[in-house]
Amino acid sequence: MDVLRIIGGNPLRGEVDVPGSKNAALAILSSVLLAEGPVALHNVPNVSDIRDKLALLERLGAQIEWREGSLFIDCTTITSHEADEESVRPIRTSFYLLGPLLARVGRAKLPAPGGCKIGARPVDYHLKGLALLGATVDLINGSYHAQAGELVGAEIYFDFPSAGATQHLMSTAALARGVTVIDNAAVEPEVTTLAEFLNRMGARIEGAGTSKITIQGVERLTGCEFRVPEDRLQAGTYLLAGAITKGDITVRGVMPEHQTSLVSKLREANAEAFEGSDWVRVSAPGRLRGIRIKTMPYPGFPTDMQQVMAATLALAAGTSVVEETIYESRIGHVTELNRMGAKMSLEGRSTLIEGVPHLKGAVVEASDLRAGAALVLAGLAAEGETVVRNVHFIDRGYERFESILNSLGGDVERIPAAEWERAASLTEPT
Ligand code: EPU
């Protein structure tokens, strides 16, 4: 367990080569199970969610090797169709292995998934979809027991465009007999990336990136080579790190159209933004002004940027309202930011923010991945020293976080928690 100690006050400026997408890679790491041959993946971020997912695949019998920054996975060797609580709990996407295991070996047993605690996060769409594809799934003592003779194509409709359910069922249907149509599918870029990966393995998927995806099942999928695109959420976080510190950041290697909602809202808040074919720059030398934000499925404002944006707006002039429509309890940042002098209150699904001119360093705790990132950004902008505890949440999804922030002018140091606690107890007044 580590803490991050941040000395705030420096404007962050410069350019960032954005690491690979955690969420795209996690979805791909479920679908690799379908390949009858080795898969080579480039640009996979080395973050703890990925390491946990790889450990789970290894327990199922996959052969995994990191070589010169790339990942080589061979799932032809899988020997098990079930995983234990300990290896499944840490990550939500462990559950997306259920369908691919069914497609590969006809049965699967997985404990209910974990992941960041930001809402109830049910799996009902996944279960309904698997049932339509011909699987039987029972929940027994907290584990899902699934079996299927032959998977058959089906028409699947989601009440809400779930990214995870779209990815899970699209990959499962790739090996089902006949045609599957997913309606009201999620259009997140990570869905499109997964379809590209599956098609590279020999799948026949059309329409990914639109709300109707058609999957013509094939007999088998083969190994392939694939490069994971850059992480639009890490990119957005660095743009906001510039905006909150009155700095100027350029993120490179990104698709500007993936940042449209964030950039539009930053412009509305008085920041300047520029973009080229594969870069986005945000400059915010003055104080931002308060705005309203409402999270929506892509291409709407991403829920994953909600907490980091709220931290940024804590320092804006005037009032902001940030409405979270995707997760009912993605609010762990609010009390901690208030410890730093922010003026935030909750009203239903909205955070009301009365902008303050300064935040003050404090000891704060990350409650989930993006709340942790929000606290680090607030620490970079605050006066004095901030210590962010529970850094393991941040390590789930930000690769080289403190070294990237430091390369932009930040002052962030990782310290073992025990060492920091010892030092803190010595300086406490008696
Ligand atoms: N939902 C259901 N039933 C289901 C599935 C989803 O009601 O069976 C609901 C959820 O409760 C939520 C909404 O649908 O209210 C959207 O959930 P979705 O399935 O789209 O989310 P997810 O696939 O579980 C992924 C990302 C999240 C990101 C969301 C939304 C991964 C590993 N996770 O989660 O990322 O917030 O999509 O874009 O891809 C993060 O990176 O910090 C993170 C939490």
How far apart lie the N and C ends?
27 Å
Question: What is the name of the CATH topology of the largest domain?
Answer: UDP-n-acetylglucosamine1-carboxyvinyl-transferase, Chain
The neighbouring-strand order within the major sheet is 21-22-1-23
Q: Could you tell me the number of beta strands? A: 23
> Which percent range describes the beta-strand content?
15-25%
> What general outline do the C-alpha atoms trace?
globular
At the fourth CATH level, what is the homologous superfamily of the largest domain?
A: Enolpyruvate transferase domain
Radius of gyration: 22 Å
Compute the number of structural domains.
2
In the CATH scheme, the class of the largest domain would be Alpha Beta
Ligand species? uridine-diphosphate-2(N-acetylglucosaminyl) butyric acid
> Mind summarizing the main beta sheet?
4 strands, mixed
Uncertain ranges: none
Number of helices: 15
CATH-defined architecture of the largest domain: Alpha-beta prism
What is the helix content?
Answer: 25-40%
Rounded average pLDDT? 95
Short descriptors:
UDP-n-acetylglucosamine1-carboxyvinyl-transferase, Chain; 32% helix; single chain; 430 residues; four-stranded mixed beta sheet; binds uridine-diphosphate-2(N-acetylglucosaminyl) butyric acid
Précis, in short:
By secondary structure, this protein is α+β, with helices and mostly antiparallel strands. It has 15 helices and 23 strands. The chain has two domains: 216 residues, Enolpyruvate transferase domain (UDP-n-acetylglucosamine1-carboxyvinyl-transferase, Chain); 206 residues, UDP-n-acetylglucosamine1-carboxyvinyl-transferase, Chain (Alpha-beta prism).
